[in-house]
TrEMBL record:
Family named by the database record: Belongs to the RRM U1 A/B'' family.
Compartments where located: Nucleus
Gene3D superfamilies in the record: 3.30.70.330
Protein name, as recorded: RRM domain-containing protein
Amino acid sequence: MAARVGAPAPAPTARPGITLPNQTLYINNLNDKISKQVLRSELYVLCSQFGGVLDVVALKTGKMRGQAFVVFQQLTAASVALQKLQGFEFYGKPMRTAFCRTKSDVIAKEDGTFVPKQKRKTESHVPAYKQPNKKQMVESQAEAQPEGDQDMQEETNQPINKILFLERLPDEINVEMLQTLFKQFPGLAEVRMVPGKTGIAFVEFESDAQAATARDTLQGFKLTPTNTLRITYAKKN
DNA sequence: AGCACA
């Protein structure tokens, strides 16, 4: 019963005001005098410099005006765009960028988690972006129980560690991109790549729990159509 | 301020 002076224990995940990385960028404070068509195409070209854009959704109806959703093909692109476009002067107003709270339909349709209209609001309290994607689950389970390969098992059964081991990275990726990607999670300490070794990297957090959050969110993420991120805990020395 | 997609 010791007095707790204004220090509410924060839940490790999903704190209010903090949105986890999402492939879709949420933009607001947009000039609502711009037509939907112009807004869509202008945002499309503006955002394409950071990577492939799958869709731009802009509604002018009611509470949705002045906002837009830009769906990126890759999370890294959304991440970079979020930072580079923060406060960007667009038709006379600085845009505000954030990660979208939910998964876009285009993405959900792609990974098989799409739920048609009605059931949405009623069903789950867990936002779509936090729900595991079926393909990814199948994949990681297949990897967690490899048929007969003991080396694999040793690798995946590492105890929790504040250092993450990343595999299947695209060749084009670099430390900056990984920092951008992981900086969104609290507690990032360092990103290391290994000279001469492509496809892998180490990402260190300040605590095991912080590393675990990042791992859970980004596990199985499609960095490119052919690079599905794989994250395990690094071996302890 | 406001987190949609039919």
